[in-house]
Amino acid sequence: EVQLVESGGGLVQAGGSLRLSCTLSGFRFTEHAMGWFRQTPGKERERVSCISSRGSITAYADSVKGRFTVSRDNAKNTLYLQMNSLEPEDTAMYYCASRPYSAHQCASEYWYWGQGTQVTVSS
Hints:
Elements: E1 3-7, E2 10-13, E3 18-25, E4 32-39, E5 46-51, E6 58-60, E7 68-73, E8 78-83, E9 92-100, E10 112-113, E11 117-122
Parallel strand pairs: 2-11
Antiparallel strand pairs: 1-3, 3-8, 4-5, 4-9, 5-6, 7-8, 9-10, 9-11
């Protein structure tokens, strides 16, 4: 059974940092492209960042470029999102997602999703 579990969310002041983690089980992590998404009530889900299966390709939403960094540790089956210089607008539920995809690029759609971790940034 495929399982994705996020952690690391919380409450932080504007300008602060958080690191989200997403641990995967039930499939070969190295064969999966990964993504981080976020969503707030009443808004569409937004892709924040993505990373290819081998970690060679990453991409970011314009709203987080220069502040967020995605990475993966294939030996630990773990995906990370380092978030710096957080802003109140970053407040959202953050989800990790995956799909089998071996191309050297981000996937355009995802099959598996975690339950999410809440990030709240106070002003």
